[in-house]
Amino acid sequence: MKRYRINSKLRFSIFLAFIVILILSTYMVFVGLTDAQGDTVERYEIVSVNYGDSLWTLAKNHVPKDMDIREYVYRVAKYNDVDPGDLNPGDKIKLPIY
Predict the structure, then answer these.
(1) What is the arithmetic mean of pLDDT over 15-33?
(2) What are phi and psi of 44, to 5 degrees?
(3) 3-state DSSP call for residue 90?
(4) What is the dihedral of CA 31, 68, 43, 54, to 10 degrees?
(5) What is d(CA 46, CA 54) in angstroms, rounded to the nearest whole number?
(6) pLDDT at 11 over 90
(7) Banded pLDDT at 36 (limits 50, 70, 90)
(8) pLDDT, tens digit, for every residue of 44-95?
(9) What pLDDT score was predicted for residue 14?
(10) What is the SS3 assignment for 16-78?
């Protein structure tokens, strides 16, 4: 049986890192960990902001029963690209329907 000897530790380390990356990326492709599923919403309701409204007051009437209102407010803010405290009367907010 032939025995192999490591001549360059740097080259061997690079080779091992390459093999590990190759194995992990192949695993992720087959398992589906790289499947990009964002918060794409197909249905939403457009609501006009009135004086004194906040994302919380708008969201409490539209939050799904199985979702925490904090998560829904976070998603609404992210979906509309707004800061929850920066709503002005007359703004249009899209409230996703899940």
Answers:
(1) 88
(2) -155, 160
(3) coil
(4) -140
(5) 15
(6) yes
(7) low
(8) 899 999 998 888 888 888 888 888 999 989 989 988 988 888 888 999 999 9
(9) 96
(10) HHHHHHHHHHHHHHHHCCCCCCCCCCCCEEEEECCCCCCHHHHHCCCCCCCCCHHHHHHHHHH
Q: Which amino acid is at 78?
A: K
Two tokens, residue 14: 């690079």
Report how far residue 23's alpha carbon sits from residue 43's, in angstroms, rounded to the nearest whole number. 39
Cα angle value 82/84/49 (rounded, 5°): 80
For 72, other C-beta atoms within 10 Å of its C-beta total: 20
- Look up tokens 């906040």; give the residue: 54
Q: How many residues does the chain have?
A: 98
Distance CA 50, CA 12 (A): 65
